[in-house]
Amino acid sequence: MPFDNHAVGTVIRRLRREKKLSQDVLSGLAGIARTHLTMIESGTKQPNFETLWRLAQALDMRPSELVRCIEEEGQRGEGAD
Prior knowledge:
By secondary structure, the protein is mainly α. The protein is built from 5 helices and no strands.
C-alpha cells in the first residue's frame, strides 16, 4: 500500500475534531506550526515520523494506533476506486 497523504490528513482531522481540539491547540500540543498542521490535514504536506509521533502524543494515543488508523483509512480509500 503506497503512502497516502490524504488518508493521513483525513485521520488527523477526524481525531482532532472528535477530541474537540482546534488546529491551534493541537499544533501547540504537538509543537508544530498551525500552518504545518493545516497542510498535513489538507494532504498537501507529508509529515515525517517525528511529526506523526508528536501528533499521536498530542492526541493522547500511541503512534502505532495513529498509524493503524491511517492504514485503515488508506484501505477504505483504495476500495472507493
